[in-house]
Design a protein that fits this description.
This protein has one domain. Helix 1 packs parallel to helix 3 (about 60-80), helix 2 runs antiparallel to helix 3 (about 60-80) and helix 2 packs antiparallel against helix 5. The chain contains nine helices and no strands. The chain is about 70% helix and about 0% strand. By secondary structure, it is mainly α. Keywords: Endoplasmic reticulum, ER-Golgi transport, Membrane, Protein transport, Receptor, Signal, Transmembrane, Transmembrane helix, Transport. Its main location: endoplasmic reticulum. It is a multi-pass membrane protein. One of its GO terms (molecular function) is ER retention sequence binding.
Length: about 220
């Protein structure tokens, strides 16, 4: 465990807490993409298949449970909660997210480190996480005006991945034979997808104005 990894994990948890705060307290999911949340639920479900079989550490197990529980809870809130679901912007959240799943799965079958069921599923989750934010970014671009909590959620989510890149760089220079090209390339792709949002988000903070995305 190093400072970059810990900061990345805490930032990831912050993104989840911000989103749950909005949904649970305000009883609103306006500006939140159900499609992205469903993709993240699938990401964690396929990545943490070892949660009940392989014990690494208490920290590792707790983190897995947090991300699994929170992702499925958010999906449930948006789909089933009688008040929250009324604010879901179905008309703008139309990104066909199912078309991201099959290419990621096929890529995992073709490019992986070891051809076992668990390894292929883990690799699939890495590829899918890299593009899971796309429906959310498209939704925000269509609605343009982004409320503070939704903006913070997306920012923290992008910052988590950026910090993980620093974690990988640190481990590359401090740990022998630490090479994971699949994770690294997917992580860079994921971070690049946030670049445009970061630009406008930081500009809004600098100028103390409401975040507005261009058409």
């Amino acid at each position: 465990m190093n400072a970059f990894r810990l900061a990345g994990d805490m930032t990831h948890i912050m993104s989840v807490l911000v989103l749950l705060l909005k949904i649970h307290t305000i009883k609103s999911c306006a500006g939140v993409s159900l499609k992205t949340q469903e993709l993240y639920a699938l990401v964690f479900a396929t990545r943490y298949l070892d949660i009940f079989t392989d014990f690494i550490s208490l920290y590792n197990t707790v983190m897995k449970m947090i991300f699994l529980g929170s992702s499925f809870s958010i999906v449930w809130y948006i789909r089933r909660h009688k008040m929250v679901r009324r604010s879901y912007d179905k008309d703008h959240d139309t990104f066909r997210h199912q078309f991201l799943v099959l290419p990621c799965f096929l890529l995992a079958l073709l490019i992986h480190e070891k051809f076992t069921f668990r390894e292929v599923m883990w690799t699939f989750s890495i590829y899918l996480e890299a593009v899971a934010i796309l429906p959310q970014l498209v939704l925000l671009q269509r609605t343009r005006n982004v409320d503070n909590l939704t903006g913070q959620y997306v920012f923290f989510l992008g910052a988590y991945r950026a910090l993980y890149i620093l974690n990988w760089a640190y481990r590359y220079f401090t740990e022998p034979h630490y090479v994971h090209w699949i994770t690294w390339i997917s992580g860079f792709v994921q971070t690049l997808l946030y670049a445009d949002f970061f630009y406008y988000y930081l500009n809004s903070l600098k100028n103390n104005v409401k975040l507005t995305l261009p058409d």
